[in-house]
Amino acid sequence: MTSKLPAPVARLTMVTLGVSNMRASIAFYEALGFARKFKATGEAVAFFETGGTAIGLFPWDQLAQDVTLPEHPRPRAFRGMTLAWNCNSPDEVDAVLDFAVSKGASLLKPAHQTDYSGYSGYFADPDNHPWEVVIAPGIVVGEDRSIRLPD
Predict the structure, then answer these.
(1) Using CA atoms, how far apart are residues 24 and 127, in angstroms rounded to an integer?
(2) Omega prior to 73 cis, within 30 of 0
(3) CA 26 – CA 42 distance, rounded (Å)
(4) What residues does 135 pair with on adjacent strands?
(5) Which of 10, 19, 129, 138 has most Cβ atoms within 10 angstroms of its Cβ?
(6) N-terminal to C-terminal alpha carbon distance within the chain
(7) Which of 53, 63, 58, 60 is closest to 85 using CA atoms?
(8) How many helices (H) and strands (E) does the chain have?
(9) What is d(CA 89, CA 93) in angstroms, rounded to the nearest whole number?
(10) Pairing relationship of beta strands 119-124 and 130-135 according to DSSP bridges
């Protein structure tokens, strides 16, 4: 017997990053200005509001075990995903990159004009998770940190 359940609502609510040093990573994301919530978890797990989706931090080895994937090898190479910090102007992109680096990020790629008429650069957090800082044509960032995508 096949059930005709309605399709679930598609949503991305949390991006959880495996980190090697919880204390250092919590300090880094707080220094970037993300508000930490639910602090009762101590350093076991950390949650940060981002304006839409949330960021979670979890010890790398425990996260690998939880998803049943090997924790090694742990490449410093590209892992197939980036996080993005959308901005409303090239000056804001430059300011965010400078700010992130001043808080301990590594600059991966300086800001530059993109092929799609945007402006973009990359930094990496202490565990080498890459962040794109970008202004993209048609994407508007609201005062509440939400984004509106073009149709």
Answers:
(1) 10
(2) yes
(3) 10
(4) 119
(5) 19
(6) 39
(7) 53
(8) 3, 10
(9) 7
(10) antiparallel
**CA distance readout (Å), 129 to 30, 38, 61, 81, 135:** 16, 23, 16, 8, 20
116 is written with which tokens?
């799609």
Question: Which runs of consecutive H residues, i.e. helices, occur in the chain?
Answer: 22-31, 60-66, 90-102
Residues 6+ apart with CB under 8 A from 83: 15, 55, 129, 130, 131, 132
pLDDT digits (tens, 9 = 90+) for 57-99: 999 999 999 999 888 877 778 888 999 999 999 999 999 999 9
| Predicted TM-score of the model (pTM) | 0.88
Q: How many CB atoms lie within 10 A of CB 106?
A: 13
Tokens linked to 142 = 């609201």
Q: How far apart are CA 64 and CA 141, in angstroms?
A: 33
**Is the Cβ–Cβ distance between 55 and 41 less than 8 Å?**
no
Residue 16 tokens read as 């959880």
Give 2-18 pLDDT, tens digit per residue.
678 888 887 888 999 99
Return the number of other C-beta atoms located less than 10 Å from residue 28's C-beta: 20
